[in-house]
């Protein structure tokens, strides 16, 4: 498969998957989230799946499950953030909305709806995209 850098939105083929890594700090990946977007107009994902574990970024079983998930949805483009995007805990479920995660002190003040500057989204400058042909292949951060 050829790796290509997608320079503009017209090169993105849909359905598109995003893979975002999360962890207790900016070096450790303990959660991967894959979301499927059916077209360029979708404001929300049509499918979402999470994988959690200490070696999740290097787990062959997780990679196979991601492939199966994306293949089942006919994914043609995959985007992957190259930096950990934030805490693996869910705001509103694991800790109160607008607050800091009590389990991940590294991210204090850096994420969530209550943060004056949600630093995770600055990491989106580091998003890589690949266009998939007949052979599905992707990489995981870590």
Question: Could you please describe the fold and organization of this structure?
Answer:
The chain is mostly beta strands. It is 9% helix and 21% strand. The protein has a five-stranded mixed beta sheet with strand order 3-2-1-4-5, with helices on one face. β1 and β2 (31-37) form a beta hairpin. The chain is globular, with a radius of gyration of 15 Å. The two termini are 21 Å apart.
Quick description:
This protein is mainly beta.
Give the rounded overall mean pLDDT: 77
Question: How many distinct helices?
Answer: 1
Instruction: List the quaternary state of the chains.
Output: single chain
Count of distinct structural domains: 1
Please tally the β strands and state the result: 5
Structural classification = mainly beta
Helical content, roughly?
A: under 10%
For this entry, give a set of tags.
142 residues, disordered N terminus, single chain, 1 helix, mainly beta, disordered C terminus, five-stranded mixed β-sheet
């Amino acid at each position: 498969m050829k790796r290509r850098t997608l320079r503009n939105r017209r090169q993105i083929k849909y359905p598109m998957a995003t893979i975002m890594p999360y962890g207790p700090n900016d070096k450790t990946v303990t959660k991967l989230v894959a979301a499927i977007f059916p077209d360029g107009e979708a404001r929300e994902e049509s499918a979402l799946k999470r994988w959690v574990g200490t070696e999740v970024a290097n787990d062959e079983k997780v990679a196979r499950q991601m492939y199966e998930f994306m293949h089942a949805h006919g994914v043609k483009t995959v985007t992957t953030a190259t930096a950990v995007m934030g805490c693996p805990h869910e705001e509103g479920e694991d800790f109160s909305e607008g607050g800091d995660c009590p389990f991940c002190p590294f991210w204090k003040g850096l994420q969530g709806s209550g943060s004056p500057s949600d630093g995770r989204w600055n990491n989106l400058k580091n998003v890589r995209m690949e266009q998939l042909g007949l052979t599905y292949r992707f990489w995981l951060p870590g």
